[in-house]
């Protein structure tokens, strides 16, 4: 990236929009799982535009689907007209959602999808009380920010919702960290009952939760915890919203949706990121009686537009035809096992965690569980120097995040693993 472009960026864009790396890069080309910057340097991409370029770059099937739609001359019509691509994609998503008698409403982003889910839930339950989880992230809009349990991503203390907070399932720190999986589930359920009894009037609209907390550093609860929560919620009809913006479409390897690890079916499910493979596409799926509880006209001007849904259809078809969920499990295991073996025993590594191709490495000061964001950043920069792009996250900014395209090959997984292990060892000076 040229200094000129960086200076121009800083002159016209807000400072609260962060840029990665001490020397920010401009990506000018991509193919498969690799991107090239303006200086001609090639990188293996393990972050995929924040888990969005789910199929990779320059995929013929997706490009051709978009080009066919562009060739019609109809890029946009608004949802006031029938959109064939939208209806076809909604049918596929409804069928795969696991939600009976499902309806789909398309938006442009995960933030909008979660905002729509909260609108629907609060209307359906006639209550603005919502349960959310500490360390969560659900978006940058007013209500979505209100249910985000991470101070770094909460730009305002004002909130249209009355939110009560549940403990997260962080295994490194926090009240539940000292417990085993079964005990953690029991404690989380007890926590939910106490929160309902002490912080709400009982008529709560919904609980919103990520199966794996994305911005939160890929923290995730033991399988079955959502089932324990939902049993309590069902006693009074409180809705369960699964935020699948990052976990959906088979990324965890185990299941198509993250919620399926818990043996439940949510009332509402939000999706975004990967389904568009870079095109703006997101939405909410819910039971018809719930999603229909909007008492006035509402629509999304650009949500589910012909071009984005043409891409979405091609993405979903490619995902299923190539069984990318199985690939995420297989290739993700290479990364997870390799990281645990090579660096999991280092004093500065608190945990290697995640599922499938959604993995995080948490760094701490040696011998403690005190977060070390400075070390994390040095590893992050060293990986880039080695030709690997990754992400960062966690409540304290001390988690290196990886969410490669689901088309990642075994050879590429081993290549990226070697770069990352070298980066960690070079920065820490430690041997496994």
From TrEMBL:
The keyword Cell wall biogenesis/degradation does not apply. InterPro entries: Aminotrans_3, PyrdxlP-dep_Trfase, PyrdxlP-dep_Trfase_major, PyrdxlP-dep_Trfase_small. The keyword Signal does not apply. It is an enzyme of class 2 (transferase). Keywords: Aminotransferase, Pyridoxal phosphate, Transferase. Its cofactor is pyridoxal 5'-phosphate. Belongs to the class-III pyridoxal-phosphate-dependent aminotransferase family. Homotetramer. This is alanine--glyoxylate transaminase. The lineage of its organism: Bacteria, Bacillati, Actinomycetota, Actinomycetes, Micromonosporales.
């Amino acid at each position: 990236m040229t200094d000129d472009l960086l200076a121009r960026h800083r002159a016209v864009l807000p400072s609260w929009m962060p840029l990665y790396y001490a020397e920010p890069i401009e990506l000018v080309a991509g193919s498969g799982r690799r991107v090239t910057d303006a200086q001609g340097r090639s990188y293996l991409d393990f972050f995929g535009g924040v888990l969005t370029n789910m199929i990779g770059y320059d995929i013929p099937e997706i490009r051709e689907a978009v080009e066919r739609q562009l060739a019609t001359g109809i890029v946009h019509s608004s949802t006031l007209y029938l959109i064939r691509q939208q209806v076809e994609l909604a049918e596929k998503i409804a069928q795969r959602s696991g939600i009976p008698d499902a309806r789909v409403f398309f938006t442009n982003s995960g933030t909008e999808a979660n905002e729509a889910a909260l609108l629907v839930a609060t209307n359906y339950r006639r209550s603005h009380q919502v349960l959310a989880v500490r360390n969560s992230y659900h978006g940058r809009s007013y209500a979505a920010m209100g249910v985000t349990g991470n101070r770094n991503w909460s730009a305002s203390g004002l909130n249209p919702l009355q939110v009560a907070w549940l403990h997260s399932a962080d295994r490194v720190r926090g009240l539940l960290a000292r417990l085993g999986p079964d005990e953690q589930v029991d404690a989380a359920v007890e926590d939910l009952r106490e929160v309902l009894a002490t912080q709400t009037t009982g008529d709560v609209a919904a609980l919103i939760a990520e199966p794996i907390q994305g911005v939160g550093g890929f923290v995730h609860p033991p399988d079955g915890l959502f089932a324990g929560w939902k049993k309590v919620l069902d006693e009074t009809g409180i809705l369960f919203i699964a935020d699948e913006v990052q976990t959906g479409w088979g990324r965890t390897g185990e299941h198509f949706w993250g919620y399926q690890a818990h043996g439940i079916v949510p009332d509402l499910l939000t999706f975004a990121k990967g389904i568009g493979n870079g095109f703006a596409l997101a939405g909410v799926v819910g039971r018809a009686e719930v999603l229909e509880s909007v008492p006035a006209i509402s629509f999304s001007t650009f949500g589910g537009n012909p071009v984005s849904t043409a891409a979405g259809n091609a993405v979903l078809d490619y995902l299923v035809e190539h069984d990318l969920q199985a690939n995420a499990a297989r290739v993700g295991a290479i990364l997870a096992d390799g990281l645990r073996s090579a660096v999991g025993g280092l004093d500065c590594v608190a945990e290697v965690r995640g599922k499938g191709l959604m993995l995080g490495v948490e760094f701490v000061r040696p011998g403690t569980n005190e977060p070390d964001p400075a070390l994390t950043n040095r590893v992050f920069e060293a990986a880039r120097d080695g030709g690997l792009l990754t992400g960062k996250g966690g409540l304290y900014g001390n988690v290196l995040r990886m969410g490669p395209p689901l088309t990642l090959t075994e050879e590429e997984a081993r290549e990226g693993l070697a770069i990352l292990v070298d980066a960690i060892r070079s920065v820490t000076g430690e041997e496994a």
